[in-house]
C-alpha cells in the first residue's frame, strides 16, 4: 500500500497495518480530543472517569496506560499520585500528550507497539487501554503482552466500544456511526477518512462476551464487564493470578 503524502488524509482499513493506523492518528492528533467530545456529546469525560475509578490507581503504584493517545486518560490516572506510563504507537499523539500534560512529574511517555511492549515482565501494578485495543492488528497478542508486563495479582481494565444489547439502540448506533459520525468529524475540522475507519472498526469489533473470552484465553482471571451508556462502550476488568 502506497503511503499518503503529508497533506493527503490517511485512511486506515481493517487490515490495521500498524504504520498506516499510526499515521492516521498522527494526522488527527491536534483535534482528537475536541472531536471526541463533540461526537460523544461529552460522554467521553464520563467514560474516562469510570475507567479511572475501575483502575483505582494508588500513590506508589506503577501503571501502564497503553494506547494513551493524547494522554487525557493518563493524566487522570496520574492525579492519584501513581507513576503512570503513557504508551502509544503514534508519535503525533504522544507529542500532543507531552504538550498538554508533559509537566506532570509522575507521567512519562513511551512510543510502544502493543504487540511487542518494550517493558520487562511483571513491571506494572495495573494496565489499561481505552478505545485502542480495537486498533491493534492482533488484539489477542496485545492482551497477552499486557498480561506479561503485569505483576502477579495486578489488574487490567479495558474500555472499548462495544455492542448495545437493545436491538433498537443497536440499530440507531449503527446509523449514527455510519452516517453522522464522519460528517461531524469533518465539520469539527478533523480527517473524516479516519472516522470512516472508526465506524468500520467498531462494526467489526466483537461483543462483550467475546472480548471477555479473549481475556481469559490470555490468562486473566475474574473477568467481568459492565456496560456504559447502554453498551455503546463496555468496561472490562480482570486480574492476573498470584501464582
UniProtKB/TrEMBL annotation:
Entries under HAMAP family matching the protein: MenG_UbiE_methyltr (MF_01813)
Name of the gene: menG
Keywords: Menaquinone biosynthesis, Methyltransferase, S-adenosyl-L-methionine, Transferase
Protein name per its UniProtKB record: Demethylmenaquinone methyltransferase
Reaction it catalyzes: a 2-demethylmenaquinol + S-adenosyl-L-methionine = a menaquinol + S-adenosyl-L-homocysteine + H(+)
Keyword check for Plastid: no
Organism: Microbacterium capsulatum
Family: Belongs to the class I-like SAM-binding methyltransferase superfamily. MenG/UbiE family.
Annotated metabolic or biological route of this protein: Quinol/quinone metabolism; menaquinone biosynthesis; menaquinol from 1,4-dihydroxy-2-naphthoate: step 2/2
Family matches, as PANTHER family: 2-METHOXY-6-POLYPRENYL-1,4-BENZOQUINOL METHYLASE, MITOCHONDRIAL, METHYLTRANSFERASE
Its job: Methyltransferase required for the conversion of demethylmenaquinol (DMKH2) to menaquinol (MKH2).
GO biological processes: methylation
EC assignment: 2.1.1.163
GO molecular-function terms, A-Z: methyltransferase activity
PROSITE patterns in alphabetical order: SAM_MT_UBIE (PS51608)
Binding-site residues for S-adenosyl-L-methionine, renumbered to this chain: 70, 88, 113-114, 130
InterPro entries for this protein: SAM-dependent_MTases_sf (IPR029063), UbiE/COQ5_MeTrFase (IPR004033)
